[in-house]
Amino acid sequence: MTTHSLLILPGDGIGPEVMTEVRKVIDWFQTNKGIQFDVSEDLVGGAAYDKHGVPLADETMAKAQEVDAVLLGAVGGPAYDNLDFSVKPERGLLRLRKEMDLFANLRPAQCFDALADFSSLKREIVAGLDILIVRELTSGVYFGEPRGIHSDDNNPQNEGGRVGINTQRYTSGEIRRVARAAFELAKKRGNRVCSMEKANVMESGILWREEVQWVHDNEYPEVELSHMYADNGAMQLVRRPNQFDVIVTDNLFGDILSDAAAMLTGSLGMLPSASLGAPMANGRPKAMYEPVHGSAPDIAGQGKANPIACILSFAMALRYSYDLGAEADLLEAAVEKVLADGVRTGDLMGPEGGTPVTTSQMGDKIVEALSAL
Ligand code: IPM
Ligand code: MG
């Protein structure tokens, strides 16, 4: 019997609360479907800093490299705002992404029918929305060298005398591998990829466009490919989001565009993500899963957080890391059922009402729905 290993990193803010609800789901699959999970738990972000003085201990990094999948809650909070840049909670997350080489970040933006009225856009524009943003996650301006804040003393024209530098750098290989991931995913969906960059002002954008086109022409001619400048892409996303199927873009544009896409769906508390790397010995990709929402320190510890994004992130782990597609479908159906029944955490509570629930009650309802389906 296979045992699926999972490293849980709850992190900061609402991370631990939503993770408690995922544990209920994991227990349900173990008890009712006989699926064996080997779950371990460790610290990341501010929680790791408090204990180790760093946002990710080396032992935790090593563990993350060994398991079938990592599930992360969220990192950061006001208590850590003034820490030195090198030990900020976010650095723990970036280290995991970089050292596990998780180059393809999948951010689905799906509008659940029961929630279409929560979107900041009109229902008719977002109803049925189902797009997938594939964000490059291990390169670009997040990691490019040179970087830093330096003095600019020999430039008397510069008031303040400092310069801040980050570098947008992409190799053709980095672009090709994330493009392949996007084309592969598109083949299982609507067969369309839109690539976004700023080829009108950036050389790295020209390279991006040429390399995505190259992968298309040589390896995926059957997939429909279009290109868009990222600013126009942002505008099109809020104008007519349904025109997109898969969007592939770089690390920084992907960060921004995926937040915009998230808002279209009505609740950030609903959106999962998967970050995938190269295949491991078992043939499945190295992987980390996380909700798109942050640590939400303003509501942490109050039982208000919506655990659905984290639960759906575990569903993505079932699908991509454990090859349990039917179980992933079941879990997603359970979430849809609970929403259709009007069960609502505060972020989902609208004028039409519903049954208000706490974080923990939402987890219980989803488990009940699993048993009922
Ligand atoms: C995200 C977040 C991170 C990012 C932060 C927390 C470092 O905004 O995952 O989108 O910028 O990548
Ligand atoms: Mg972001």
From TrEMBL:
Pathway assigned to this chain's UniProt record: Amino-acid biosynthesis; L-leucine biosynthesis; L-leucine from 3-methyl-2-oxobutanoate: step 3/4
SMART domains, alphabetized: Iso_dh (SM01329)
Binding-site residues for NAD(+), renumbered to this chain: 77-90, 294-306
Cofactor(s) the protein requires to work: Mn(2+); Mg(2+)
UniProt KW keywords: Amino-acid biosynthesis, Branched-chain amino acid biosynthesis, Cytoplasm, Leucine biosynthesis, Magnesium, Manganese, Metal-binding, NAD, Oxidoreductase
Annotated Isopropylmalate dehydrogenase-like domain residues: 5-366
Site (Important for catalysis): Y142, K198
Residues annotated for substrate binding in this entry: R97, R107, R135, D231
Binding site for Mg(2+): D231, D255, D259
Keyword Hydrolase: no
Top class in the EC scheme: oxidoreductase
Gene Ontology terms: cellular component: cytosol
UniProt GO molecular function: 3-isopropylmalate dehydrogenase activity; magnesium ion binding; NAD binding
NCBIfam families reported for this sequence: leuB (TIGR00169)
Function statement: Catalyzes the oxidation of 3-carboxy-2-hydroxy-4-methylpentanoate (3-isopropylmalate) to 3-carboxy-4-methyl-2-oxopentanoate. The product decarboxylates to 4-methyl-2 oxopentanoate.
UniProt similarity note: Belongs to the isocitrate and isopropylmalate dehydrogenases family. LeuB type 1 subfamily.
Assembly and oligomerization: Homodimer.
Protein name as annotated: 3-isopropylmalate dehydrogenase
